[in-house]
Amino acid sequence: MTLTRTRVRVEGIVQGVGFRPFVHALAGRLGLAGLVGNDAGGVFVEVEGAAETVERFLEALATEAPPLAVIERLTATPLAPTGGHGFAIAPSQAGGERQTLVSPDTATCADCLRELADPADRRYRYPFINCTNCGPRFTIVRDVPYDRPATTMATFEMCADCAREYSDPADRRFHAQPVCCPACGPALALLDREGRPAAGDPLAEAAARLREGAVVAVKGLGGYHLAADAASEPAVAALRARKHREDKPFAVMVADLDTARALGQVDPAEAAMLTSPRRPIVLLRRRPPGSGAAVAASVAPGNRSLGVMLPYTPLHHLLLAEVGRPIVLTSGNVSDEPIAYLDDEARERLGGIADWFLTHDRPIHVRADDSVVRAFGGRELPLRRSRGFAPQPLGLPWPFPRHVLACGAELKHTFCLAKDGHAFLSNHIGDLENYETYRSFTEGVEHFRRLFAVEPVVVAHDLHPEYLSTKYALELEGVGLEGVQHHHAHVAACLADNGEPGPVLGVAFDGLGYGPDGTIWGGELLVADLESFRRVGHLELVPMPGGTAAIKEPWRMAAAWLDAAFEGRVPQRLNVVGRNRARWERVVALARSGTASPATSSAGRLFDAVAAILGVRDTINYEGQAAVELEQLADPSETAAYRVRITGPDVDGGLLRLGGTDLVRAVVSDVTAGVAAPLVAARFHNGLAGATVAACQQLRDTTGLGTAALSGGVFQNMLLLERTVAALEQEGFRVLVHSRVPPNDGGISLGQAAVAAARDRAAGQGR
Ligand SMILES: [Zn+2]
Ligand SMILES: [Zn+2]
Q1: Residue ranges of the chain with pLDDT lower than 50?
Q2: pTM for this structure?
Q3: CA 389 to centroid of ligand 2, rounded, Å
Q4: Count of C-beta atoms within a 10 Å radius of residue 483
Q5: pLDDT tens-digit map of 168-189
Q6: Residue 171 C-alpha to ligand 2 middle, in angstroms?
C-alpha cells in the first residue's frame, strides 16, 4: 500500500460549528492518521493513509459537514508522508491573514432541548445550555480566532465535567466555546429596579410577575427585551405608555408552532422561517379576532399582520413554558433608541419601563436586534436582517477587487464591509440620528474590520451631505471615496441580492433620497446596472411644505398634492381640509412659495397624502405609519384601478412622469361620491402598480430591457408589491425582488458596496 499525506485547507464558516470533531471522527472512522486545527484562515487538516481512503475523506469533508458549517473553499496539497500514527487536534494558531467567518447566533438545537427537559441530565432546566450545533456566537465574540478566551465566556472557568466534554472529540460539546453547566456557567437573577435580587427562583418568579401584568426586562442574546403578557390589555398598554411607543406593532413570542398557527396563518414557507435556526420574527397574516388564542388589541393595533417568533434561547423556552401563554417581546429601548445590551446601561435606561429585570452574568459583546422577515412568493423577504443572519457573509458572483467599506444611509442603518467574493452586512444599527447609534456604527465598523480582516481602501457613501454616515466617510483619510446615489444603491442592492449585473429597469420607490438635481427623489425609474444609472422617469413633483415637518404630518402632503391636483381649487368640503383648516391656507401658501418646501418625487409622500385624504391619519408616530395603515385599510379583493397618465418623454428633459395628480383626483372623486375607504385605498394601490407597469412597458420599447428590479422601502407594502409583480409578469417582464437583504434602507449598504466594486472592475483595479 502506498501512503499519501495531504494537507487540506477549509475556508468558510468552519469554526465554532463542530468542524474539528467532525474531521476527527471522520479520520478515525477511515483509519487515517494526521491532525486538524483552527487558524485565522479557517481549519487546516493533514491526513495520511492509502490514496483512495484519503480521496474518500476529501469527498466526505464536503458532503457530511456539520449542519451549521458553510464550506466556501476546500484546497488540497500533497505532502511527504511522515509515517505517524493516530489523529490529533492541534492547538489553535493565531496570526496570518484572517479569513475566518464568524457564525451567527443559533437557536437551541433539538439535542440540547431534550437534555433541558430531562430531569436526569446535569443541565436539566439550565437556561444557558448549548453545544457545538447551537447557542450564542456573533454576540459573544470579541476577537478571532474563535476560541473561548476571545469570547465573553472567558471569565467562566469550566468545571471538570464540562472540561471533559470540551476536550473529548467524540462529544457533542467538543470545543463548543460557550459550553457550561449550572456548576460553572452563568446564572440567572431576577432584580428589582434598584438592582436588588428577588426572593425565590428567578425564572418562576419572573413568570409569575408576567402573569400578574408586570413589565419584565429579559436579557437575551443580542440585548435586553421588554416582556409583557400578550393577552393582558393593561400590561401591554402600560408597556406602550412607558416605552413611548404609541402605535408601532409589538412582536410576540409563542412557545411552539401550534400556538403560532392559532395566532396567524402559517404556510409551509412561513413555518420553515419560524422554525429555522435563525429564528426571526415572521410577519404572519393574523387570524380574525375571536378565533384561537387571543392577544390584546394594543399589541398590533389596526394591523392585519402580527410579528411572531419562536423561542431561540433555552431561557426563552423555559420562560414561555412557565408563563404558559404568548408574551410580547420587544426591543429594550425607549422609542427609537438602540436596544440596551450592557447590564448597567439597561438598568439605567429601562428602569422607568420595566418593573423587574430577568438577567444573567454572561456579557453581550455585540448588540443585535431580532430580525424581521415575511414570506413573498414562497421565499423569504427580509425587512430587518440582524440577529441570526449577521455576520454571515453574502456571497456574490463578482469579486471585490479592493477592500470596501460601504457606510449605508441613515434610517434602518446598516454598513457593509467587503472583500474577495464576500459582503459582510452588519447587524441592524438603527436610525443614525443620535450619538448612541452613531457610536454603535463606528464601533461596529472597527469590530467587523478586525473580525474579518478587511482594510477598506474604497469607501462608498450616500450623496446626502447631512447623513452622519456620509460625514463619517468624508472624514476618513487615505481612502478612495465613491459617492452612490440613494436610489441607484437601492436598485444595485436588488441586483446584488439576485446575483445579477443588470442592466435592468430599476423601480425605486421609497420615502426620501438625495437627488443630484436639487430635488428630493423617491419615486424613481432608472436604467441601471451595478456601475451606473440613468434616470428615465419619476413620479410627478410636488413641494414638501415645511420640509421634514411634512414627513411627520402627512396632512401637509395632502395639502400639497391637492393644491397641485386641483390647481388651487381644492374642494373645501373634504374632511382633511376641515380637520386642518386653521393651518391649511398657510401650508398651501408655504408650498407655493417654495420656501422650506423642497420639490419631491417621493412615492412614500404620495402614500402619506392619500392616507390623510382618506382620514387614516394626519400625523404619524413612527416612520412610514400612514402608508402602513393605508395598506392595512385597503380591500385586497378589489381589482379596479385608478387610471394614471404617463407623460413624456418629450417634455421635462426626456423623462417619463407618472401622474400622481391623476391618482389624487380619482381618490377625491370617489371619496366625494361616498365610496368606502377600503375600496378607495385598494384602487389607489392598483392604480400606482398599473402606472408603474405601463411606464416599464414604454421603457422596454425604447431600451429593449425586459427585466425590472423593484426596491425601496415602499415595496415593503405587500399589496403594492404583489400587484406590481403580478402585472409585470403578466406583461412578460422578468421581475427581481429582494430575498437576502431588505428592500428598505437596511439593504442600501450592500448596493453601495456592489457599485463601488463594479466601478473598480471597470477601472481595471485588481488586475
Ligand atoms: Zn445544542
Ligand atoms: Zn460545568
Answers
A1: 97
A2: 0.92
A3: 29
A4: 18
A5: 878 889 888 899 999 999 999 9
A6: 14
